[in-house]
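Today's session is about reading a structure prediction critically. Students often jump straight to the picture, but the first step is always the sequence itself: look for stretches that repeat, for charged clusters, for runs of hydrophobic residues. Only then move on to the predicted structure, which in these notes is written as discrete structure tokens rather than atom positions. Here is the chain we will use throughout the hour.
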Amino acid sequence: MALGRSKVQPRFEDPRTLLGQRLRGIYLLLADHGGAMFADDYFADLYKASRLGRPTVPARTLATVMILQAHEGLSDQEACDRLERDLAWQAAAGLPTGAESFHPTTLVGLRNRLRASARPRRLFEDTKAAAGEAGVMGNRVRVLDSTPIYDAVATQDSVTQLRSAIRKLLRALHRDYPLLAAKVRGVLVRDDDYAGPGKPACDWDDPAAREALVDALVRDCAAALAVLDGEELEGPAADAVELLAVVAGQDVEAGDDGVFRIARRVAADRVISTVDVEARHGHKSHDRRFDGYKAHLSVDPDSELIDEVIVTAGNVHDSTPVVDLLVGHADDEVKPTVMGDCAYGTAETLARLADGGYDDVKAKVAPAPGP
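Below is the predicted structure for this chain, in token form.
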């Protein structure tokens, strides 16, 4: 995809004019300020000059769709459909009524380029700055909260993780260190080529068979790690070794008889999948549990716009990034009032906020820990 230029000549079928006062919130902000925020060269650093590729798409249109897509929680296809059918979207993007959209895969490529750029959060940063300059976002109050981000991969049990970690290591070594791959393959004793995905064959109704399988998998893990001890690896192979070491130690323990068994405990920072190694078990309450990540938010309640967002693993406590959520106000002479639930009302969190100058904190006091 190459960069395009916005059409500056207005048409009679202007959705901004048609909607008038019915256009509100983020749609009004983008309609009135989007042209200045997202000039034609806004994404120029992401692309090399080229005359080849698909028809060009103006930067303002792409930026607007990505922002509204995140705002409404839509898929790429849904976002492109909305651009064609929704007057508020067309007004926000500076397009005439009835404008045609672009192919959804354009968004995939743009996101990948943004992640690799020197300023990957530019859409969020520039929209927030424009909202402040336009007086849409105030500084009186900030409401803190978090929300789960559910992982898109299946949570794996201990046996699946052990075998998957060995398989992942072998694949990485075969690609980058074939001689080491042969050495590791030579010390594995299980009758398993570790080629296919999923659980290994086993009589799962037989406790002795399950126990023997776990012990054999752990010993294969240990043997592979012993071969690679002291080797200087890089890239995927180094990551695979680290993952294997974690998985082999987090869920198993050796009995008095020397046999490795599944431990009757859950590791504090347990890896839940060898596919997405950063995801974790999390919980928003005693009964509401999830697997994945947390989005920690600082919100201006007047405009309902997000002032800051930080993503962590799912097991990170809500109050952990509280100072980073308010970093944009660190130099403010008058600090905003901070509001939140009891997760932000612990003595430790209140002390951290006080150290940062946030004296007006309205958070429900956290209950004292039980005996």
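Discussion point for the tutorial: The two ends are 62 Å apart (CA to CA).
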